Structures are given as structure tokens and as C-alpha cells.
Amino acid sequence: MGSESSARRVDARDRDDEGRARNARPRDGLGRPLPYGADGVARQPEGVVRTPAQTVAEAQELLDAGKPFHAHEVFEDAWKSGPEEEQALWRGLAQLAVGLTHAARGNVMGGARLLRRGAGAVEEWAAGERQRPYGMDLAGLVVWARELAGVVEEEGESVDAGARAPRLRGAS
Fold first, then answer.
1. Taking the chain, what is the end-to-end CA distance rounded to the nearest angstrom?
2. What does the mean pLDDT of the chain come to?
3. What backbone phi and psi angles, to 5 degrees, belong to 25?
4. What is the pTM of this model?
């Protein structure tokens, strides 16, 4: 392969002026890339600063709609824009959403691993008196994630993301 072929391949990719990926391809509801020109699901805008209550409400709506990939982006915004002492909480919640995304895509090992990693991060953050920040049931989320990780491994197939969505504030 000559350098001309390599240059064409790189130039055809979605990159900004500094070479960072732009991810302009349309995506499905689980964040998987679709062919250019296909009708995709609207992406979450990046870098949105929300209140914690808005973050929880928006993420729950997305989870209920079977869009855990999109919910992860909402949690990621909170992780990046929130107070430093809460970064581990929002990062752990983002990992739970990504774990559900992978489980719904049929990535059994990756889904189970991320669900357990997120559960551990949330559990560690919640140690002590922080069991229900912003009305979230962190202990219940940890149980949900570990149970789902076991189900995913045992059944070895994809799950319905909307049917398996967690209740961030507990059973209603």
C-alpha cells in the first residue's frame, strides 16, 4: 500500500482539523454506526451542563426508551462538568449505562464486565452516608447491575435494553 492510499483512507474518516474523531456517521439507538445516509437516532449533544436532577431525569427517560448509550452520554456530561467529589459517582453510572449498552448489543463479556465495574464504582462512592444522592437508589442500582451481569453471562445473548433498564430512583 502506498502513502497515497493511506492518505486517502485517513482523509475519508470523520476528523476535525486536529485529527480527532468526529463521529459524524448516523447511529442506531444503541450507538452502533450505520451507513452514511441512513436514518439514525439523534445523538445527545455533548458538553451540556445540567443540574443533577436534570441529569437523573434525562438519563432515566433515555434508559426507559432503550437508549442506554445516550444515557451514558448524559452521565458523562455530569462526570465532566460536576463537582470533583461527584466525578466517581457519575463515571460509575456512565459505566452502568455502557454495560447495559454492550449487553443489549450482544457483547456478553464486555457487558457483564462493565456492569460489575460500574456497580463497584457506585458502591465505593456510596460508602458511608451517600446512599441516595439526588433521590437515586444507589444500593438498588448495585444489585440491579450485578444481577443483570449474571443473567447476561448465564444466558449468553443480548438483552432488551428498555425492558432491562434500571430505575435510578428505585422501584416506583
1. 59
2. 87
3. -65, 145
4. 0.82
